[in-house]
Amino acid sequence: MKIKKFIAGLVVILYAALIYFSPPRYIDKPKFLFLRIAKLPLTLTHAFFRNINYLVLSKDMIQDNKYLHDTVDVLTRQLSQYKEIEQENARLRALLNFKKASLPRLIAAGIIARDSSNFSDTIVISQGCKSKINSDTVVVAEAGLVGRVYESSSSMSRVMLITDPNSRVSAIVSRSRQIGVVYGTSSNLCELRYLPLATDILVGDEIVTSGFSDIYPKGILIGRVVKIVREPRGLSLLAVVAPAVNFTSLEEVLCIE
Amino acid sequence: MHRISNATIMMIVICAGFIQVTAFGYIEIAGIKPDILLLIVIFISLSCQKSETIKAALIAGIIKDVASSSVFGSYMLSFLVLGLFLNYHQRKFYKEKIFTQALFGFCSYIFMAIFVFGFNSIAHRGFGPFYIFFNIVVKGALYTAVVSPLVFFVTSKILRIRLAHAG
After folding, report:
1. Shortest CA gap B148–chain A (Å)
2. In total, how many domains does chain B have?
């Protein structure tokens, strides 16, 4: 009995030593193996609960549908105006000999699983290295920024959401162009930090990526300011940001190659 | 103490795991969701034998590790240590009352969180600033405590075990 306990203790100590000295990506390799095995049942279970959620929310969806139809009409009118402006822009660019900026390729991916714990906010998506999705690939949804790829295997990737406590995004207040850093808090909100006390920022202001990093391109909507407070030490302001993306109902994402 | 077949343990833990990683996104409050896998491990360790506790803790831990970004093995070890502790002291503390079930859920969640935090710190993988971690732990423990009587009730119905008569 004592030998068994000794061996069990030894295994724990050896494992702790192993994870201390080896890079995390080697320790985490088996995770994708398990996920690959469980991919199909996970996808089916996800679809099952998603449909149940639809049934529960069907009343709200009728109202949403009406609202969306009205919005589509407004947006269609705006789109025709923008097309005019785009053509004008193209003509003016040609006159000035500007090179056309190449648009990035977007890869669609479905969500297979969500984080099982509360201490981190990650999702597993159905695309990986085969589709040229590697670490630090930026992931977006129609509404705005989702996060970045944290680790990837051949056919799956784990995405760190912007609400994860380890997430940091260089951001800018869209209206006043004030720069800050968006931190995840593992709740459904983020915090925009390092804003000078005299910053011109209001509740409702849009926060977008600043482009001052090697990872996130400029101008992707992160969210809107819902509250402004002083940081605990009182040296700067802190804005609480509600992400533009509703992570609870997120089903598909787009990866920027 | 009850005996449950390996197939039943695997079935119930895997089902709980699938629900945890797919459905619980819809019932989270302010980004916090309860930990059903932890509650299943607590239930089995309080009602079954040591070998069953180890099997349930290992399977639940692997599922939890696979579906989270924490270092592989941290949840597995925390479930194992917690399960064995509860199994050893099975009848000393536990009474089949809603408050006791909620208290077990709350305390076990706090233990698991501290264990996982420590283990991930060894691997140089933090969970952000400590005050955020603390905030999440308290909320998560409370939510888990609230759902624990329901999970215990459903699990006991599925396994046809009453904890009061388990010893």
Report:
1. 16
2. 1
- Residue B1: inside a domain, yes or no? no
B148 domain-assigned: yes
In a domain? residue B81: yes
Interatomic CA distance for residues A65 and A220, integer angstroms:
26
A120 and chain B in contact, CB less than 8 A: yes
Instruction: Kindly report the three-state secondary structure assignment for every residue of A146-215.
Output: EEEEEEECCCCEEEEECCCCCCEEEEEECCCCCEEEEEECCCCCEEEEEECCCCCCCCCCEEEECCCCCC
The minimal CB distance from A24 to the residues B20, B123, B139 is found for B123
Counted across chains A and B, CB pairs separated by less than 8 A come out at: 136
Share of chain B above pLDDT 90, in %: 28
Q: Which domains does chain A have, with CATH numbers?
A: 103-257 (2.40.10.350)
Minimal Cβ distance to B68: which of A30, A52, A120:
A120
Nearest CA in chain B to A118: B32
Q: Is A163 on the interface with B (CB under 8 A)?
A: yes
Domain of residue B26, CATH code = 1.10.1760.20
Place of tokens 């095995």: A37
Are the beta carbons of A121 and B31 separated by less than 8 Å?
yes
Residue B165 pLDDT greater than 70, yes or no: no
Residue B80 lies in a domain: yes
* Domain range for B109: 6-165
ipTM of the complex: 0.77
Mutate to test the interface with A, among B11, B21, B51, B62 (most CBs of A within 10 A): B21
Query: What's the pLDDT band for B167 if we cut at 50, 70, 90?
Result: very low
